[in-house]
Design a protein that fits this description.
alpha/beta, six-stranded antiparallel β-sheet, Methionyl-tRNA Fmet Formyltransferase, Chain A, domain 2
């Protein structure tokens, strides 16, 4: 097939490489504009741009799609069989939906209609889901509401983090996308409408999503910790300073301390949560300090009896 590929982050790279390896022609690659990265603020090309250039593919990075006459002329001139969308991060305008005969095909990181939106992998882990997966779908004018094409289910382990799941789903999704193109070309795929009544939303993450609420159970907090890696992470405050929690695990023993109370058992630092549950705090970073194991933190920071995290 003749394709146009739209993607930006590392999650999309395996799919681009897979469709090229399968022999498809990628006539054009769209990616978001290059942005400053890291503390240095150095502007770096997106992972998809880097991959595309390594394969000598033509890349464009438009700021806007909807009213971009030059881009529209380019895409309509290519007359692709399909446009692939993988974590592109832009709303696809109607004129673009109307161009290819097989439509705009999106690889989405969940088992639709569960977790429609910008952060499906993070929210699946944060919600404590025991399974997720990838879905290929034909994009329509709604938010991840188009007809589904193929799905693959993946279990989520009790300690799986979002970065680990990203890597696994990116690899599986690449294979599924190639299979979807094969089925479309052969005419042996039946689109399935989503049941809107079963839909859940996975909105873009904000920094505030990482703030811990100790009125929740230890398992709920741990799930959010696993889901919100590497950003926004999870944090609370101690004596008016931000306290980032880099490693934790739920305790199997009940506690009588009120939620949010810090307490020490032997050399272990714990915090009480809802329903008499507790979490071991294994690695911490107090505002203005370096990250350190709990044992080292306790040696340098005297915890008072009944002290609360806010």
């Amino acid at each position: 097939m003749k394709l146009i590929f739209c993607g930006t982050p590392q999650f999309a790279v395996p799919t681009l490489e897979a469709v090229l390896a399968a022999g498809h022609e990628v006539a054009l690659v769209l990616s978001q504009p290059d942005r400053p990265v890291g503390r240095s603020g150095e502007v770096q090309p997106t992972p998809i741009k880097q991959t595309a250039l390594a394969h000598n593919l033509r890349v464009v990075q438009p700021e806007k799609l909807k009213s971009n006459a030059e881009l529209r002329e380019q895409i309509e001139g290519i007359a692709p069989d399909a446009i692939l969308i993988v974590a592109y991060g832009r709303i696809i305008p109607q004129w673009m939906l109307d161009v290819p005969r097989f439509g705009n095909i999106n690889l989405h990181g969940s088992l639709l209609p569960r977790w429609r939106g910008a952060a499906p992998i993070q929210w699946a882990v944060a919600a404590g889901d025991e399974k997720t997966g990838v879905t290929t779908m034909r994009i329509d004018a709604g938010l991840d509401t188009g007809d589904m094409l193929l799905k693959r289910e993946v279990p989520i382990g009790p300690h799986t983090t979002s970065p680990e799941l990203f890597t696994e789903l990116a690899s599986i999704g690449a294979i599924l996308t190639v299979q979807t193109l094969q089925c479309l070309e052969a005419g042996n795929i039946t689109p399935i409408k989503q049941n809107d009544a079963e839909a859940t939303l996975a909105p873009i993450l904000t920094r505030e999503d990482g703030r811990i609420n100790f009125a929740q159970t230890a398992q709920t907090i741990y799930n959010r910790f696993r889901g919100f890696q590497p950003w926004p992470g999870v944090f609370t405050s101690l004596r008016g300073k931000k306290l980032i929690l880099h490693a934790m695990r739920p305790s199997s023993h009940p506690t009588q301390h009120p939620p949010g109370t810090l307490f020490v058992e032997e050399t272990h630092l714990l915090v009480a949560c809802a329903n008499q549950t507790a979490i071991f705090l294994e690695e911490l970073q107090l505002e203005g300090k370096r990250r350190m194991p709990a044992e080292e933190f306790l040696r340098g920071f005297q915890i008072k009896e009944g002290e609360q995290l806010q």
